[in-house]
């Protein structure tokens, strides 16, 4: 009988050790003995689909906890279909395929046997572009994957943080909430995406943002003034970014902003607009017209 993710029989309440898709366990198999039986484990993405040939992590546990309250690991392997030599008895088998998995209780007898797992899993590959269709540098783009089905973001369970673009993530079929972050300030796009079993879902979001670099200069086209403290506030008067240096690079969502630069007890300010996809340098001129009274700044 195939096993399905979130098996019944109380297995979904078991606290199995965490599984990492990036640090799979070493191949651990018990030595064969005269009493051991051959157990073949295989998995499919969907019912009656082809067997998964690679990317599986198999872990076999004794069903009784040890003195530390943990399930003893009997054997593990990675790859596709795997064969284990196990002593007769009861075991818990966990099949992991990325972030998709299934747990099944098996009873090993004297005869060879085969156990199949149906994972109901698919793949998700994420990317993003700028509003003008331009490519966003991968090192400035990250994704987070949350459980879907909730209207309240605080109720969503985080599944994977810091996912790099164009990385295939293996997930159970279902709806997921995706958060795409361009830069580190406020360029954030949220969307719900459905992952289908045995399919690779590719999704590209569009960021309405731009990369800018602020610099304080004495005249247009002049050298940036060092030791400058920067503060950027949005249209609602909320601070969104602070930094120190001659240059203040950042990615901002489209909208209206005010840049405030402080250098040697002098404070200058300038309003500016972010247009989607328009990457540029923005100069704040250190002139009397742009200067502010320091006592007027909280």
Automatic annotation (TrEMBL):
<protein>
    <submittedName>
        <fullName>Uncharacterized protein</fullName>
    </submittedName>
</protein>
